[in-house]
Amino acid sequence: MLWFQGNSMQLAKHSFQRLLRNLSASKTALPVLTLFTKDPCPLCDEAKEVLEPYKNRFILQEVDITLPENSAWYDRYKFDIPVFHLNGQFLMMRRVDVSKLEKQLQKLEQQGAGGS
């Protein structure tokens, strides 16, 4: 009886380790959605509300363009915020284009699922 229990434990431990290995191998990094913003920014607040249903599909990174270290972004986007980049590439500005965001997220998710 002890021999059987020992083998069952080994089998269970091996299966669990294999499951964890498969989960971590299949897990892909979430894309980064960068929001260029300032305080106050009512349009940015509105945009974040629109993004709420999608928040589990990306990592939101906010960049305050008024900080000295972000002066290049300030010069570029001071009249256009909110501005969004997805994985470092310009995506949209002034308002959230939900269909464009959805299309790009699906594209990245399919690439991730395919191992690319």
TrEMBL record:
It comes from Balaenoptera musculus. The keyword Cell cycle does not apply. Transmembrane segments: none annotated. It holds the Pfam family Glrx-like. The lineage of its organism: Eukaryota, Metazoa, Chordata, Craniata, Vertebrata. InterPro entries: Glutaredoxin-like (IPR008554), Glutaredoxin-like_YDR286C (IPR052565), Thioredoxin-like_sf (IPR036249). This is Glutaredoxin-like protein. PANTHER family: GLUTAREDOXIN-LIKE PROTEIN C5ORF63 HOMOLOG (PTHR33558:SF1). Belongs to the glutaredoxin family. Keywords: Electron transport, Transport. The gene is C3H5orf63.
